[in-house]
Write a structure and sequence with these properties.
It contains eight helices and twelve strands. It is an alpha/beta fold and about 250 residues long. The protein folds into two domains: about 160 residues, P-loop containing nucleotide triphosphate hydrolases (Rossmann fold), CATH 3.40.50; about 80 residues, no CATH class. It has a six-stranded mixed β-sheet with strand order 6-9-10-3-11-12, sandwiched between helices. A four-stranded antiparallel β-sheet has the order 2-1-4-5, covered by helices on one side. Strands 7-8 form a two-stranded antiparallel sheet. A hairpin with a 3-residue loop joins strand 7 and strand 8. Helix 5 runs parallel beside helix 6. The protein is globular, with a radius of gyration of 19 Å. The chain binds adenosine-5'-diphosphate and magnesium ion. The site of adenosine-5'-diphosphate (ADP) has 11 residues, from strand 2 and helix 1.
Amino acid sequence: MSLLQISGVNKHFGAVQVLNGVDLTVEAGTVVGLVGDNGAGKSTLMKTITGIYAVDGGDVQFSGESLIGVAPGARRQRGIEMIYQDLALCKQQDVAANIFLGREPVKWAFGFLPGFVDKARMDEDALKMIARLGARIPSIHRPVGMFSGGQQQTVAIARALTFNPKLVIMDEPTAALAVREVESVLKLIRQMRDEGIAVILISHRLNDVFEVTDRIVVLRQGRIEADLQTRKTQMREVVSYIVGAH
Ligand SMILES: Nc1ncnc2c1ncn2[C@@H]1O[C@H](COP(=O)(O)OP(=O)(O)O)[C@@H](O)[C@H]1O
Ligand SMILES: [Mg+2]
């Protein structure tokens, strides 16, 4: 049984058919690159997995169960996380606050009064999570807006991991990064895979896709144009599928 199995998914917005009979499977502990031109339907397809969009037809199964009619929050509980391109971090807040955003551990004053956020525990848990990623953050007490793009990406990944995901979807995680930082994000992706997490990586940077994925799936005008094993594939083949010249 595949972790994720999408079959025959259709989605339209008004008169525009954005997804057309899409089939896609993703196994646990693998990294799948999802590539395609702007407007190909990549983000829309991912939102049918997270539950932001309902499908018009077809099925999305996760761990053998259909997600049709399941709300986004319940899908997250089942192990689906998406890290958006803008990361959705609170730039003025520090690392721990961002990792536990909205779920701050509360210290029960005198054993029964829910008094205040347990900042010491948050810091400790945040440090543990960063350490698990083998990542380096200069100070967890600094507002994340002061960190580099790669460090912010690390915080967003750490946040996603606190939900114990089985699948992490990343939309263009390396697009805005300095070259030096790309490698550290790719390392985090490999690490998630080694922990048995499935990763779907949306990226325009084919070098990154080739470096870190097991499979490359090309979406073009809402259809799966190719589903390729990375190590058996040349970059120019992928490019020709993206532009529809294959
Ligand atoms: N909420 C929406 N309402 C109407 N059209 C949309 C919406 N979201 C995406 N689209 C359209 O769907 C198509 C695919 O978009 P998208 O999934 O964002 O592609 P990609 O992520 O591959 O660039 C585009 O033509 C886009 O304009
Ligand atoms: Mg997109």
